[in-house]
Amino acid sequence: MIVSSTHDGLTQTFDDLSGNASWRCLGRRGMLFSECESFDYVRLAPGSVLDERGRGDIEEAWFVLRGDGEFLEDGKDPLPVHEGSLVLLSHGAGGRWRAPEGAPLELLVLALMPASVSKRLPPRTPSD
C-alpha cells in the first residue's frame, strides 16, 4: 500500500506506514521535456531501509547529498556510500538503500527511461 501525506513541505511515501522515508518530487517527465522520468529528493530516517527493487523499468542516478549509508544489491557485497557518492543503476537493476543508526541519509535521484524505450519515442521537445 502507498500512502502519501505532506510534512515539513516534503511528500512522505510509505510502503509500511513506518514514516521512515520522505520523498519530494522536484520534476516529472512532462515538466522536463526529456527522457527523464523524474528528479527527486529522498531522506531516509536513521536506521531505515528503502527498497528500490521492482523499479527495474528505469535507469537511475543516485547522488548522496548528506550522510553515510549502504546500497545493498542481492547477491553482492554492500556498497558503502558517503556524501558526494554517485551510484548508477542500469535498466533492470535494483536494490535497497540503508541509512545507518543515528544519522539520516539524504539523496537526489534522477530516473530516466532506458534507451530501449526512448529510442522508439518521437522527439520530445517543447513547443512554442
Can you describe this structure in just a few lines?
The protein is mainly β. Helix content is 6%, strand content 47%.
Question: Could you please describe the fold and organization of this structure?
Answer:
- The protein is mainly beta and 128 residues long.
- The protein has one domain: Sandwich (Jelly Rolls), CATH 2.60.120.
- 6% of the residues lie in helices and 47% in strands.
- It comes from Amycolatopsis coloradensis.
- InterPro entries: RmlC-like_jellyroll, RmlC_Cupin_sf.
Structural class, by secondary structure, is mainly beta
As residue ranges, the low-confidence spans are 1-7, 9-17
Cα radius of gyration in angstroms: 15 Å
Q: Overall mean pLDDT score? A: 76
What is this structure's SSE topology?
Elements (H helix, E strand, L loop, with lengths): L2 E5 L2 E5 L6 E8 H4 L3 E9 L4 E3 L7 E8 L2 E4 L6 E3 L4 E4 L6 E3 L6 E8 L2 H4 L10
Antiparallel strand pairs: 1-2, 3-4, 4-11, 5-10, 6-9, 6-11, 7-8, 7-10
Protein name: Cupin 2 conserved barrel domain-containing protein
Characteristic terms for this protein:
five-stranded antiparallel beta sheet, 11 strands, 128 residues, disordered N terminus, 47% strand, mainly beta, globular, four-stranded antiparallel beta sheet, single chain, Jelly Rolls
